[in-house]
Structure formats: C-alpha cells, structure tokens
Design brief:
This protein is of the alpha+beta class and 276 residues long. It has two domains: 2-120 and 264-273, Diaminopimelate Epimerase, Chain A, domain 1 (Roll), CATH 3.10.310; 126-257, Roll (Diaminopimelate Epimerase, Chain A, domain 1), CATH 3.10.310.10. The protein is 17% helix and 43% strand. It is built from four helices and 18 strands. The chain has an 18-stranded mixed beta sheet that branches. It is globular. The N and C termini lie close together (7 Å). This is Diaminopimelate epimerase. One of its GO terms (molecular function) is diaminopimelate epimerase activity. It is an enzyme of class 5 (isomerase). Catalyzes the stereoinversion of LL-2,6-diaminopimelate (L,L-DAP) to meso-diaminopimelate (meso-DAP), a precursor of L-lysine and an essential component of the bacterial peptidoglycan.
C-alpha cells in the first residue's frame, strides 16, 4: 500500500489513493497510525472514486473509528489530488460522510499553498449535533466534571463539538477533562472538545481533544465550531483567526448563506510503502 504522510497544522494523516477500502480497514488504521509500531498519524485517509462528486474521502481515526469528516484532512486530500495530478482543476468537490465539500485551491508554481473549504452550514439543534438536549441552539449548557463546573456550546460541522470558553487554557483541561467530556452521557455519539480563550474580537486560542484521536495540534471542524460558538455567544465577530498549537486557521461564517469557510495550509511530509 503506497501512502503519503501529510499534515494540516500538525494534525497528521496517512493518505492513500485507492479504488476501494479494504475490509480490515479499522484494524489497519490502528496499526498504521500507531506512533511506535506504525507510520504514526491521527488518522488513515482514503481518496476514492465518487459517483456524486469529483472524489470521495473517508477518514479512519487512530482508534479505528470512522469520522464523518475532518477539515484538516480535507485540505490534505485537496493538495494531494492537485499536486499528484489527479486533476488540473482548482475548484474540487469532495464527497464525505457529512456531505459534499467544495474546495478552492491557491496554487503557486504548480503547488497548492492554501486551501479554502466550504464546510457547510453549522448544525445547532441539540438532538442533531447530537446531544441529549432538545434545544436549538444549545448555548452555555452547564456540565460538571470531577467537581469542576464548565459551560459548553454544542455545534456540529458534520461531526459533534462541545466548545468551552475559559479565561485561560490550563494544561489539565485538554488531557484531564477532554477524555471525560468526550464520552459524557450528554453526547450520544461522543464529542470533540474545544477549550477556547478569547484574545479579541477577531482572534482566539483553541486547544482540542478529538473524538477517537486524543489531543491533536489542530482540528479544522473544531476551529469552525469554535468560530460559530464564539459568534453565537457574542464573544467575536463572524470572521476569526483561530490559533491552534500547530498554527492558524482563518474561519468565516457567511451569515447570508449560513455557510462556514475555512482557509489554511497543508503539507507533505514523506511518501512510503506499507506492507499489508
């Protein structure tokens, strides 16, 4: 199996261009993503043919679960498709489990330098995120974790997010509270967890605990969910730079179209062959 190791702001993936997904893909994802005995990655990503879009993307987390979509992986896939000459187009539609994503590429010297993704409309209805709350939207809902009272805003960008605003991001939040919140009874399909510090009306810091992956350096859908939650709660405007451990993403929530756009880079690390 030929693969390309890529990352979007440190959120890293093993990207494979194939006709089909193998039957043992869940076990394969765990083995390939293992950072000691495998290639090492947050996810195994397949680029596949699509009957309804230009290409299809499927992503399998390092724990063997399949994700609906991933913003950083979408940017990596888009760069792969263009740089490896699978298409000459700079406007690409990608089929994901969360729907079709429209992608625009910035190309310099025949290489993709930035990717702008139409991430679709945010889902705010509690039961569709999903949470157990029949509210629309679910804003600043209290959750008690080990005696600590926090408030989350629930947003789905095709996958569920619990966005928690804090005065200062403490080290124990992500690794200590993140895994507990991920599996909390409030979230029937588990959730990604974002801890967010507001810098000003157009900038935020975000650290993330990703469902099925653990702490990562960046999360594209999480950055989108954070921008939506920050605007809903009156903390920022509709366009923000989200500063993550791995770098920055620019997020725009177009109010007229009710569509969220994400712009950021993606990078090739190396190529290799995995012996099946």
């Amino acid at each position: 199996m030929k693969f390309t190791k890529m990352h979007g702001l440190g959120n890293d993936f093993v990207v494979v261009n194939e006709k089909t997904v193998p039957t043992d893909v869940l076990d394969l994802a765990v083995k390939v993503c293992d950072r000691n005995f495998g290639v090492g990655a947050d996810g195994l990503v397949y680029i596949l043919p699509s009957e309804i879009a230009d290409f299809q993307m499927r992503i399998f987390n390092s724990d063997g679960t399949e994700a609906e979509q991933c913003g950083n992986a979408i940017r990596c896939v888009a760069k792969y498709i263009y740089d490896y000459q699978l298409t000459a187009a700079t406007e690409i539609n990608l089929e994901t489990k969360a729907g079709i994503q429209a992608v625009s590429l910035t190309v310099v010297d025949s290489k993709v330098t930035a990717v702008r993704v139409n991430m679709g409309s945010p889902i705010l209805e509690g039961e569709k995120v999903p949470t157990i709350f029949n509210e629309n939207p679910v804003i600043e809902k209290e959750i008690m974790i080990d005696g600590t009272s926090l408030c989350f805003t629930a947003v789905s960008m095709g996958n569920p997010h619990a966005v928690i605003f804090v005065d200062t991001i403490e080290n124990h939040f992500v690794k200590g509270l993140g895994p507990i919140i991920e599996k909390h009874e409030y979230f029937p399909r588990k959730t990604n967890v974002e801890f967010v510090e507001i810098l000003n009306q157009s900038e935020v810091n975000m650290h993330v605990w990703e469902r099925g992956c653990g702490e990562t350096l960046a999360c594209g859908t999480g950055a989108c969910a954070t921008a939506v939650a920050a605007y809903l709660t009156g903390r920022t405007g509709p366009s923000v730079t989200v500063r993550l451990k791995g770098g920055d993403l620019f997020i725009e929530w177009d109010q007229e179209q009710n569509v969220v756009y994400m712009t950021g880079p993606s990078t090739v690390v190396f190529t290799g062959t995995w012996l099946l």
